[in-house]
Specification:
alpha/beta; Rossmann fold; 2 domains; 7-stranded mixed β-sheet; 4-stranded parallel β-sheet; 45% helix; binds 6-O-phosphono-beta-D-fructofuranose
């Protein structure tokens, strides 16, 4: 193998730079040239790239975001876009493409398989942690740290005012962030896809109201609700209105939003990114259609189809801990 290409694609995640660094340094040691294409698949369509050298990547392990920039790419949903990507890879005599991103980015990889014969390897990086075949994705631990710290601050003002706070966290359609952050921050309630669905919203609402009323009355503290994005109709403001209309409960809304995606990666993410980056280079030499992951402490390779098509549920242990703590709170 002489040349590999790297892209970072989809929602950026802390630790993407650490993965780029590990890939480039590993390649250098093995005399493999590395081309970094900008803006995810768009850079491959527009032929926008840089030669990645050890000098360039050595100092980036602690940096959030991605030096290669990231983007979502609509063109990858169409044959024409996929063909353009394949042409650029062929033109530059690339032997393997390493895609650092989430499931949308891996679907792009799968589409490319029929038009390009080089090796395709995925490195899971998304704050959402919604990819199977790896216990954690790169960026998840940092996002949980950031959101937990933010809620610790909110907690102070919530307690001072004995106020209800609805804090919306990211996660797209999964509750990994909501459950981990909710437990770490000692949230009084966690509302997420795993414990509420459209049919049980009514029930969740009544339970929440009873919980808030008894706690505010008896304990004179704040009440923090961690709400998964995309769950409640009309989002956190919808829930705020519901609490007011149904039970006269006033609340404040705080959407943590993109602060969860930014910032310096925590040590856990830097280490995971380094391990997966090293493994991606060795996988790229002799396999294709694979994702590298870490399962039960073991670095492993998995078919990309399994990684994208399987659902990764929130750990049962987290559900149990939350239920246990909910009972103790009331
Ligand atoms: O996938 C990461 C993520 O931050 C999700 O948590 C969120 O729903 C989405 O990306 C936001 O996407 P965009 O950057 O396109 O607004």
């Amino acid at each position: 193998m002489k040349r590999i290409a790297i892209i970072t694609s989809g929602g950026d995640a802390p630790g993407m730079n650490a993965a780029i660094r590990a890939i480039v340094l590993s390649c250098h040691e093995q005399h493999i040239e590395c081309l970094g294409f900008y803006h995810g698949y768009n850079g491959l369509i527009n032929d926008e790239f840089i030669f990645l050298t050890p000098e360039l990547v050595s100092p980036i392990i602690q940096r959030g975001g991605t030096i290669l920039k990231s983007a979502r790419c609509k063109e990858m949903h169409q044959d024409e876009g996929v063909k353009q990507v394949a042409n650029t890879l062929t033109k530059h005599q690339i032997d393997a493409l390493i895609v650092i991103g989430g499931d949308g980015s891996f679907r792009g990889m799968m589409a490319l398989q029929s038009d390009w014969s080089g090796n395709l390897i995925g490195v899971p990086a998304t704050i959402d942690n919604d990819i199977a075949c790896t216990d954690k994705t790169i960026g998840f631990a940092s996002a949980v740290n950031t959101a937990t710290q933010a809620i610790d601050n909110i907690r102070d003002t919530a307690n001072a005012f004995e106020r209800v706070f609805i804090v919306e966290v990211m996660g797209r359609r999964s509750g990994h962030i909501a459950f981990n952050v909710g437990l770490a921050a000692g949230a009084e309630a966690i509302l997420s896809f795993e414990n509420c669905n459209l049919n049980s919203l009514e029930q969740a609402k009544s339970h929440l109201i009873t919980q808030i009323q008894s706690q505010l009355l008896e304990q004179h503290t704040g009440f923090v609700i961690v709400l998964a994005e995309n769950l409640w109709p009309k989002g956190p403001h919808g829930l705020q209105q519901t609490l007011k209309d149904t039970a006269g409960i006033e609340s404040a809304v705080c959407v943590l939003g993109y602060i969860q995606r930014g910032g310096s990666p925590c040590p856990e993410d830097r280490i995971l990114a380094t391990e997966l980056g090293i493994e991606a280079v060795s996988a790229a030499k002799n396999s294709t259609g694979m994702m590298v992951g870490k399962v039960n402490g073991q670095i492993s390779r998995h078919c990309i189809i399994r990684a994208t098509e399987q659902n990764k549920p929130v750990d049962q242990a987290l559900h149990s801990a939350y239920h246990h703590m909910s009972k103790l709170n009331n």
